[in-house]
Amino acid sequence: MTTQENIIYLDYHSTTPVDPRVAEKVMYYMTTAFGNANSVDHGYGNEAAQAVKQARQYIAELMNASVKEIIFTSGATESINLAIQGHIYQQNTPAKIIVSPVEHKAVLDTCKILAKKGLAEIIWLNVNQQAQIDLEHLEKVCSVRASLLCVMAANNEVGTIYPVEKIGAIAQKYHIPFLCDASQAVGKIPLNFQDWGITYLAISGHKLYAPKGVGALVVKKGYPLEPLIYGGGHEQGLRSGTLNVPGIAGLGEACRLRQLEMGVDENAIAFLRDQLQNLLKAQIPDLLVNGDLNNRLSGNLHISIPDIPNSAIVARVRHQLAISTGAACSSGIVAPSHVLQAMNLGENIIEGALRIGIGKFTTKEKIEKASSAIVSAVKAILSLK
Prior knowledge:
alpha/beta
């Protein structure tokens, strides 16, 4: 059986390996300073509380937010649910939620269940074949008033980066609270919570080299939310439960490191991504690159090889490469990508789609080996036709 060490990991959108420096911090708060941050009658609790305080500071600095605006959660999915449900439950009348159809399922499914319960009406935004939203259409639907706007910072499948500052300005113009799912963007592109008109911003630790099971929701002052979890009044009463101090310390450390290293890392990652793209296109003439090529995450390479099912390629390279046929949230479901469908791509393009995610631990040697493995798989499949 092939060991994981022999498989080249190219699924950074799904999750990132924990940075060893972050892991060291997490381990310290798991085994040495293991106190409860809410039990401050002794040194253990005080040290844990200080770690949480420091993490808030690092997270706030990375996205220009206030430490008082940081609410710790288990990850972006919980953060999104808290923002959407917590906001809508504060409304006195059925809400109108403006939503991009290429959002993560955490946004889409939450909005749909609220609509099913009669608590909200969904207004869908128009997107083009690069997964970019139509800003003119956005302004039009915002002008008739709404309770909430949901647009992500960067797409988790095709890597398209959205003009968050412009979107936030439109939301502010019409006094509409704006939820931005930034789980794929934080630590990869600059974000400015305070100045970009964002009301709620969701992040997840395991997308930026921190552990799984920890995240945050940034909530602008003056926007009350109905809690989803009760029992203790932690996190300003918005998220009860004993704080995950090791995870929070790890998330904080990861944010500190991303602020220091993001620029250099992302330039290097983009270089490797372009190298892989060029190697593949040189050997696979029919290969298509999906998404907005001028505005995409550095580590994103979303390709389609028309008329060659992505499952056939993955089956041939699975013991060499870790790549994906779509979003991790839907990987267990045999269904076409809702993102690619919203982009109105052809069925043969959707069926041939592969998501490749490159990160800070990817090397040139791994890129070259990955190219060879994918090209060999394609040629082997074509030889059977």
